[in-house]
Amino acid sequence: MQVKCTICDSVESIDDHCFEAKRLRNKRILMYLCQTCYDRVEKKTLARHTTGKFRLYSEKKPVDEFI
Description:
Structural class: mainly alpha
Mean pLDDT: 89
Shape: flat
Number of strands: 2
Number of helices: 2
Largest sheet: 2 strands, antiparallel
Strand content: 5-15%
Strand order of the largest sheet: 1-2
Low-confidence stretches: none
């Protein structure tokens, strides 16, 4: 299966029967990242986490007392 990285537009081929190929076929909203882009994003994200200023805000849902 031919896939294209959404960041660097490089075209790669992955096995048709692998789990990632199945996810990309069934859920077209998912995007493919090549390994170099994935590693780069991961490194920058971890660097932001270590600064201490990075916070993940969860969605505040109203509490239903009847559930």
